[in-house]
Fold this sequence. Notes:
- Residues 38-127 form the Cytochrome c domain.
- InterPro entries: Cyt_c-like_dom, Cyt_c-like_dom_sf, Cytochrome_c-type_DH.
- This is Cytochrome c domain-containing protein.
- There is one protein chain.
- The chain is mainly alpha-helical.
- It has one domain (5-17, 34-124): Cytochrome Bc1 Complex, Chain D, domain 2, CATH 1.10.760.
- It has seven helices and no strands.
Amino acid sequence: MQGGGMMNMSAIRHRFVSQNGVDPIYASRKNPLKRTAMNIGDGKRLYERNCAACHGPTGLGNGAAGKSLNPPPANLAAFSRTRMATDGYLYWTIAEGGVPLGTAMPPFKNTLKTDEIWKIMIYLHEF
């Protein structure tokens, strides 16, 4: 695990979700897209364009743009395999970013289409 980013962001988000739950708008969402080569490829391209600068090319939380952030970016490679990483939780995280938590992650709900968020989520499970 790189630099504790997963632990720091995981702890912050876990505490927030334990106290407040995932926003009901997102909590029960399920990814409607299938894990296909095309969706994985699209998700990879979207991840590289929107996420890798901070989270790193393989999701370790070690991207160049994230090095000065406090808390550091999450280690998505480790986090995407936890029980907490439900579809609703991941969608909420990408859509709302760090706004609910006061962290630097930008919200993507107005810059990415719904299917683009789902494709990024499919790709996260490839780490």
